[in-house]
Specification:
Blueprint lengths: L7 E2 L4 E3 L10 E2 L10 H19 L13 H4 L4 H6 L2 H4 L5
Antiparallel strand pairs: 1-2, 2-3
Length: about 100
């Protein structure tokens, strides 16, 4: 999700950043006439809406993440995790 290497498509044609973001689409695969958008339109939307979303993800959940040896593996963990838990408390076990 951090690098934009994968895509999740919901049953209604919504492009999601991850399977856990159901109901929070980046954009739709379908245009106003319910036709699938072109690859070029997909790429534009993916780089625009998806790019803005990925930029928001690239925020360390805690200062400790910057020096953590596992940073290249977890990238600070799942963004949904940080909506529920305080990174300053949860990160302590990582180091």
């Amino acid at each position: 999700m951090f690098h934009g290497n994968g895509v999740t498509i919901d049953v209604d044609g919504s492009v999601l950043p991850c399977t856990h973001f159901a109901g929070m689409p980046l954009f739709s695969l379908l245009d106003n006439a319910e036709r699938v958008i072109s690859p070029a339109a997909f790429e534009l939307a993916w780089n625009d809406a998806g790019g803005r979303f990925r930029e928001r993800l690239w925020v360390y959940p805690a200062d400790e993440c910057e020096s953590c040896p596992a940073w290249q593996k977890c990238y600070g963990g799942c963004p949904l995790f940080w909506t529920r838990y305080d990174p300053k408390i949860a990160i302590r076990g990582c180091q």
